[in-house]
Amino acid sequence: MKITHIGGPTALISLGGLNLLTDPAFDEPQDYELPGGRVMTKLTGPAVPAAELGTIDAVLLSHDQHKDNLDDAGRALLPSIPAVLSTPGAATRIPGVHGLANWESYDLQRPDGGVLTVTGVPALHGPEGAEAVTGVVTGFVLSGEGLPTVYVSGDNASVDLVKQIADRFGPFDVAVLFAGGARTTLLDGAPLTLTTEAAVEAAHLLDPAVIVPVHTEGWAHFSEGPDTVIAAFAAAGLSERLRVVDHGVATALTDGV
Length: 257
Description:
Residues 19-215 form the Metallo-beta-lactamase domain. Keywords: Hydrolase. By secondary structure, the chain is of the alpha/beta class. It has helices at 72-77, 88-93, 131-134, 159-169, 196-205, 226-235; strands at 2-7, 10-15, 18-22, 30-33, 39-42, 58-60, 83-86, 97-99, 105-109, 115-123, 137-143, 150-152, 174-178, 210-214, 251-252. The chain has one domain (2-239): Ribonuclease Z/Hydroxyacylglutathione hydrolase-like (Metallo-beta-lactamase, Chain A). The protein is built from six helices and 15 strands. α4 packs parallel to α5 (196-205) and α5 (196-205) packs across α6 (226-235).
């Protein structure tokens, strides 16, 4: 498995001969006007333009309602992708999207004749009851014969849900955690994604997975950056399992696939 971090929550995962793109956000830095006079600010552009990524076989879209997970350029990319997997709600709002209910699976055909199975798993975008404000979100589990098992958290803030997923699908080889403690005034500053402290808790539950943090930089509402994550994992004795990958660089996480 290789991963190329584009920025924010956007990463290209190469697994089993397929390329899967998480939460596509390719706009240049700008402010987005939101209802109620709020503003969402993108601070950095993509490390790799979408046009330079090559073939993308599937998009793993945790949800479609927020610009940091699906911006204008990312939305324009979707019609060209053979499989776009997201929430059932996203499937009603965007033509061609396949919605996955919790624990529902979708098979992608691999070039070698095998199958890469993508399973939708629960995610909670904030504290209990946040769905009414932030909407329904999904995470993903990637699995297949002879392949590492990978967890992609999506915009999830719940360690309890990580435990459910680990109990059901573990052990994992790699976990791509949307950390950064994203926050909004709509929920009195409660974290919408894993805080660094919660990411450390999740890492213990996901042992022995390699932990790849994304969604920690590039947007003004992310409150805890990569340096915070590195320090916290070091303090917890988990540095050997943490991989903070350089932007735009295809980085091998496992051998032989």
